[in-house]
Amino acid sequence: MSVKLRVAVVTFPGSNCDHDCYRAFRLLDGVEPEFRWHREAELDGVDAVVLPGGFSYGDYLRAGSIARFSPIMESVVRFAREGGPVLGICNGFQILCEAGLLPGALLRNNGLRFRSHDVHIRVENPGTPFTSRYEPHQVLRVPIAHGEGNYHAAPEVLAELEGAGRIVFRYCTPDGTLSEAANPNGSAHHIAGIVNEAGNVLGMMPHPERAVEPVLGSSDGAPLFESLLDHLAAAAPHAGELTT
Amino acid sequence: MSPTKTDQDAATPEAAPRPRPGDPEITPEVVADHGLSPDEYERVLRILGRTPTFTELGIFSAMWSEHCGYKNSKPLLRLLPTEAPWVIQGPGENAGVIDVGDGHALAFKIESHNHPSAVEPYQGAATGVGGILRDIFTMGARPVAVLDSIRFGDLDSGRNRYLFAGVVSGIGDYGNCVGIPNIGGEVFFDRAYDGNPLVNAMALGIMKREELIKGEASGIGNTLMAVGARTGRDGIHGATFASEELSEDADESSRPQVQVGDPFTEKLLLEASLELIRSGHIVGIQDMGAAGLTSSASEMAGRAGSGVVLEMSKVPVREPGMTPYEILLSESQERMLVVALRGREDEVRRILEKWELEAEAVGEVTDDGHFRIEENGRVVANIPALPLTDGCPTYEREGVESDEIRGLREQNLSEVLEPRGDLSAAFLDLMGSPNLASRRWIYEQYDTTVRTSTVVRPGGDAGVIRLPHGKRGVAATTDCNGRYCWLDPREGAKAAVAEAARNLVCVGALPTAITNNLNFGNPLKPHIYFQMREAVLGMAEACSLFETPVTGGNVSLFNETDGKAIYPTPVIGMVGVLDDVERALGHGFRDEGDAIILLGENREEIGASEYLYRNHDLVAGAPPLVDLVAERRLQHGVLAMVQKGILLSAHDCAEGGLAAALAESALADPERPLGLRVELHDRIAPVALFFGETQGRIVVSCAPDDVDEVLGMARNHGVPARVLGAVRAAEQGFRLDAPLGSIRVDTAALSERYFNSIPAIMDTDGDLPDAAGASHE
Lengths: 244, 777
Description:
Radius of gyration of chain A: 17 Å
Largest sheet of chain B: 7 strands, mixed
CATH topology of chain A: Rossmann fold
Helix content of chain A: 10-25%
Mean pLDDT of chain A: 93
Oligomer: heterodimer
Structural class of chain B: alpha+beta
Radius of gyration of chain B: 26 Å
Mean pLDDT of chain B: 92
Number of helices of chain A: 5
Shape of chain A: globular
Distance between the termini of chain A: 4 Å
CATH class of chain A: Alpha Beta
Low-confidence stretches of chain A: 238-244
Largest sheet of chain A: 10 strands, mixed
Low-confidence stretches of chain B: 1-14, 766-777
């Protein structure tokens, strides 16, 4: 008999990467992902929360701006403030910013067009619950697919992010160099992903869940999910679901 | 709604609707405005036994338009092979369905949105994607991939750049939002598509075999429910509009006939529909697509051999005061008609409410075989369903080839075989042609990796996705060269099928079935009808030999602007099956030293080529000949090599010829372009050898150690094969040598031409699409 970790994948109306995130966890041992509908009020004792990509509410007003008012978001905010790990990918990152769990905002890509292709990102901080299996400055190849991924924040916020090591991933060339050409959307300081002050909330625009198997072109995203499981397993014993 | 049964015979006075106050009187002009010929109107009178009401006239007009009734194409479509043991659903349903193994079924179909896109490119293309996705999920299948086959006039015109940018952005935004990966397609530019772009969208969906559901209104007393978006005044008579020629002033005045898409609602509708189908509460479901409620309800009744009655006051509308005529013919998007088991209406509503959508009971299934419309209990239309859906008159016409086109085909091209100046310069120029340059600018606007199933992404010969669980996969491609079809429609259609099959075997998939999109001009013109008939015959011949039956598709006629027709463009959407996606192959060379092998033979053919269009501004000569038996051997040979795992890449020779195919393989990875050294021994004119578009050729690469085995397997399959040379580092350049000429270019210069040509054209001025759709992600 062993205790399986429980990870909630939240589905908003218009989420379209929920199944992909679910699948990324399904490929790992010792974890049980579960879908949670956005109208549910309680998280019900899960160990981690994923806000997947997509177009919640069509992104009609502004990406992520309506989803943050979904009933489940109150619980997600509480969970995050209590130190629970929350991962927001793409639209999930946008929702985290709208909900105030992460600073800054994601503007229209500087080319004003949707961009979908593989990018290279550099691991800037392997000391987070999401990146412990990566080496410092390791370069990953992962897909992006977004129209609003241009990270923007006030200079003092950027300075704080830089100073506190809260920039987790930056866009770079295949050999790890930072350059404008390798920045697909114009993000400030080449930012591809950041964590909150406590380090338990990660928002990122690239899709690690699309890079977990060689047959899909890359498995560089898999260690991110494995890192999270390491972190959860190492945390205090929890009231998880019992399985045989 | 009044559930009372009417008499079996619509012609009896008590069942006959009376004219609705305020509706126009039926005059010959009104009939003509509805696109019905005098003969067709006679037939309407015979079916009804009386003068139709205005509402009924609108219904006949839509159902008997070319778009819904296929009146000019049905006799030709019967010539196509449609059966094979693996075909589960052939033509006539929302989409074709085939067995792809492991208990999975694949639903797939292609559909055009040419006319709307000519008027409003962003919305026209977006709603084209929306419509084809609904065709897939109404079969019970979850959409897993889309492809787009698009054509425009040359990009030196601002209008064409505007159309191109708008269409790409419309296709992208819609599919991206719903979360369906785009895995391929094609784009082609030629002045023949000036003013009349072609926008064909194809979609694929996967289900378990037993999840198949059909668009049938069965079970007397079951409830018809309108589901999804409300009905508005947009797109009224879109089907009739799509069946007319465009005129210069069509742009502005036709805008109300173009629908507006909402991909967010589509996503909700997709999830709700699949949940509904799995729930067992419904027996039939159909998209309200072309001709809206009219076609969905009457076709569902027609297929089931039942009748339906609809109460107009129950249909959820966007604005008050809509007439039955408007409600019935609206083409508002993201709507479905479902047939719920009687008594399960509340369960249906609950599922829709979960997805924040509406479902309203609007009618029921009857046993009288009539399509009956009521407004507050008063009958406003009462038409026998079967004659309405299946009684559309069909026409077989006389086809005569145009003398002008025959003359061009027979033109002597010996002069153009003399190169104009330097071959290397001509080659660099050719690789910058929008017809050959990298399509990255397009597909980087499409999400290609969502759903984590894309194994081969756009940019190669065909897209590949894996099926849920296990190792199996499905590949898809769209192909057609309109120039070939214009100069010789029969050979051109054969070439389209042959190229599609080559593309599939290049990624390692066995060609399995076809959906087609027949884009032509005005069929009332004898030379256009000739093109249609010849193209269908060529397609039928190739499909029979390749064992790739046609399971459905779409016909788009009247693609003319101010009397000038597009090239005949019978687009082939072909699907294939892979046993093991880990063996799927790309088109790119891998490493320095790998051997480059040509399968197939070079011939001195230059007719209908991109080289002629680009260098001589000429569309002439005979298109390359298609040897279907040799193609079949080639397909089997390549598949055997892929199964054996001895190939590192495979790439079809198509537009731009052998030189372009080699360049595309060398430049497949933009981050790591490669060079090559190739020696050819054919003593044929270099222009034809390098740029001629001879069919039946595939360039493969393999490790040096595997060369003998590749050549041996080719021999066993009766496929001519020879080593052309080897892959080199980028710094060693791109070198082709032949007895009568050579090409030597710098890899970086070639790469620059190939990757930057389309961005250089599209990103330098302000031809951005309407802000209407560009405002969101």
